[in-house]
Amino acid sequence: GTGSRTHASCGGPIPCRSADGSKHARGSREPILAARVPTRPKDIHHLENREWRRQHTQQRPMAPLALGLAKVGAGLAIGTPVALTGAVVSLLTKMHGSVGVAAPTKRMLAEEDAKACALFRHLPALAEKIAWRSLGADVTPIHRCALNTPSGVPVSFFVKREDLASPVYGGNKVRTLQHQLAVIESKYEAGDPRCANIHVMGTGGSNQVVATAVHARERLPKLTALWMDKDVPDLDNTLNMLSTLSMPLAAKFNWAEPLPVLKRLVGAAFGGDGVVVTAGGNCPAGVLGQVGGLLELAEQIEAGAMPSPDRIYLPIGSSC
What are phi and psi of 252, to 5 degrees? Predict the structure, then answer.
């Protein structure tokens, strides 16, 4: 162990061990002191001092890396929900304005009696600005109901029977569709290519989907049904879906096919590849139909069909 040896890469002396176990450099019996231990990273492999290597490899500063990763994680945790929320809001906004508004066609003006629409009776100037189809609907009657509470107190109330709105398919969806489908028809006849590809969205037992399919089939192209989520498996919901499936459709997608459903909605909302009849008819044209329903109720109260109510209760579904 006393021969002359040098390291092949740097030419430095290799520490040797004496008989007593102490370390010394070649040609000297002086022990190597801590101050003479090489500290350059490339010299670490010269050392046989395991304690030195253990300390200096375990004490590498990890704080900056950990802090950087924490910042990235926090950014993702905050940014991802915000981005998703923004995307959903943007999609809903686009769908809300998908149908839009349009003036009636000459054929509509000739075939429909504007006085049959409560909105036009009170604002006749709108009859030539906003498309409308009656869809066979008439003024819905008001019925008085009376019963006793479990404690024996008599209670009476009035119900406006929107379920009798149409002999074909009733319910409150009729009013939202009177303007929506007329607007789509007007744009379709004017050559708007989007209106040749109609999408209607709802849940598995949606009245909106089946009502749109029923009332659109006479004057509009076949539509695409988009069932966004499943419903409670009861009789009514089952019959609604079966009724929709019994009618001619351009296509149909359900909650088990989320990507095709999303592709259709995004394409129609942002890419101009169709028009979307939103859930519950919740859009400007649809809301105008509900305004007409309220004006019709006001006319009936004024005519004495019922006294002026203290409260009005509005049943709601998924989106209306």
Answer: -150, 140
Within a 10 A sphere around the Cβ of 245, how many other Cβ atoms? 12
Going by C-alpha positions, the residue among 279, 189, 258, 264 that lies closest to residue 224 is 264
Does the pLDDT value for residue 216 go beyond 60?
yes
Long-range contacts made by residues 302-311, C-beta under 8 angstroms, separation at least 24? Answer: 305/142, 306/142, 306/144, 306/158, 309/158
Amino acid at 21: G
- pLDDT attached to residue 13: 47
Strand ranges in the chain using DSSP code E only, listed in sequence order: 16-17, 23-24, 142-148, 154-160, 198-202, 224-227, 251-253, 275-277
What is the per-residue pLDDT across 168-207, written as a single tens digit (0 to 9) for each? Answer: 999 889 999 999 999 999 999 999 999 999 999 988 888 9
Give the global pTM.
0.72
Residue 11: pLDDT band (50, 70, 90) is very low
Residue 133, exposed/middle/buried by CB under 10 A (0-12, 13-18, 19+)? buried
For the cut 90, the answer to whether the pLDDT of residue 127 exceeds it is yes
Q: Compute, in degrees rounded to 10, the torsion defined by CA atoms 102, 106, 109, 110.
A: -160
